């Protein structure tokens, strides 16, 4: 039986094509120069697209499908969705069930084209956009969330907020017993700041090793596991470092970091999260210059002759980057001397065991 994707009012959905028809794909192109994400059902050949739905098996029954974030440039914390579920839920993509597995990432919000039908959540989180209504248990099977703050926002018991699935990586055979062979601390920026500076050059001056968040997921994971220390602006750099018992330091280069996501995961492990801002003076300046909110029902008038907001923002960013350049290596070097963080090993082990129990339950209930 062939497959086709047909446009729908909501997400794109997979439906059986007429017998003998050639498979076809409806794609939504993305701006390769932007940070606009794609969401992809488990079809690596599709590329970065908005895609979701239910995939028929050879006998016409629907099988479990996977829905996750995929960026055109790559982002290791999301790209691991392409293979981690094969290890956590062996055989998941052959299970005959009309449901969609919602993958690792901050993808529980109404702004994304979440698939219609039953959604199985085993570690995703909130943090962007509006919170979806998950009260319909026929549509939502919430087995685990990234952390207790996601559970609170969704209005479900806090104990469902177990941990991020990436914390299970050290238990996978391919990542077992990775030696601590690195000698230089690593710096892993957030995806949004991956092109903010010439990071390889900056890190050489700071005595650090640069690891791009756009790198191949397995390679990035191994780099983190081998390192003596990780400076993490990327949340999954910290998550994976903690899982492999690599000390880490949370750093913030800009104000683009979503601290709610960090707090959600940190709360799952009882971590007292502390960010080391590299440029706190800019944060103070931004707060001081923040305009007073306009009264309800009114809109603030633009100053006469003021440039369009987009142009003004670009000009501000250019000025800030110019100010950061001579300081960034020195600030990173100083951040690397801060006291690193690691979760309590007993708490980590308990969270991993609780999450494994969830996986066992999913396998029991969905494999059939």
From TrEMBL:
Tell me where in this chain the Polysaccharide pyruvyl transferase domain is found.
139-255
Q: Where is this region: Disordered?
A: 1-21
- Pfam entry (one): PS_pyruv_trans
Species this protein is from: Alloyangia pacifica
Sorted alphabetically, the keyword list is: Plasmid
Q: What is this protein called?
A: Succinoglycan biosynthesis protein exov
């Amino acid at each position: 039986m062939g497959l086709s994707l047909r446009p729908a009012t909501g997400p794109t959905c997979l439906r059986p094509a007429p017998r003998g028809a050639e498979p076809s794909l409806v794609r939504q192109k993305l701006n390769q120069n932007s940070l606009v994400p794609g969401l992809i059902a488990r079809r690596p050949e599709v590329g970065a697209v908005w895609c979701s739905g239910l995939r028929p098996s050879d006998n016409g029954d629907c099988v479990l499908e996977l829905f996750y974030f995929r960026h055109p440039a790559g982002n290791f914390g999301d790209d691991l969705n392409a293979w981690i579920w094969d290890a956590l839920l062996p055989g998941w993509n052959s299970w005959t069930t009309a449901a969609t597995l919602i993958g690792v990432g901050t993808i529980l919000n109404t702004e994304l084209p979440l698939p219609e039908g039953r959604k199985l959540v085993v570690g995703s989180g909130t943090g962007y956009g509006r919170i979806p209504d998950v009260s319909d248990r026929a549509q939502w099977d919430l087995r685990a969330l990234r952390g207790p703050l996601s559970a609170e926002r969704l209005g479900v018991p806090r104990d469902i907020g177990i941990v991020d699935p990436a914390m299970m990586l050290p238990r996978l055979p391919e990542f077992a017993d990775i030696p601590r062979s690195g000698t230089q601390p690593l710096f892993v920026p957030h995806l949004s700041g991956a092109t903010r500076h010439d990071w390889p050059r900056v890190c050489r001056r700071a005595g650090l090793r640069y690891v791009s968040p756009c790198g191949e997921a397995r390679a990035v994971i191994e780099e983190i596991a081998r390192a003596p220390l990780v400076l993490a602006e990327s949340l999954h750099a910290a998550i994976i470092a903690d899982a492999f018992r690599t000390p880490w330091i949370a750093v913030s280069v800009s104000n683009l970091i979503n601290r709610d996501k960090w707090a959600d995961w940190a709360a799952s492990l009882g971590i007292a999260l502390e960010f080391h801002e590299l440029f706190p003076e800019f944060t103070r300046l931004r707060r001081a210059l923040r305009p007073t909110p306009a009264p309800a029902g009114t809109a603030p008038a633009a100053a006469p002759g003021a440039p369009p907001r987009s142009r003004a923002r670009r000009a501000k960013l250019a000025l800030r980057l110019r100010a950061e350049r001579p300081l960034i290596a020195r600030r990173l070097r100083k951040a690397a001397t801060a006291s690193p963080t690691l979760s309590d090993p007993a708490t980590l082990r308990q969270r991993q065991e609780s999450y494994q129990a969830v996986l066992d339950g999913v396998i029991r209930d969905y494999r059939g």
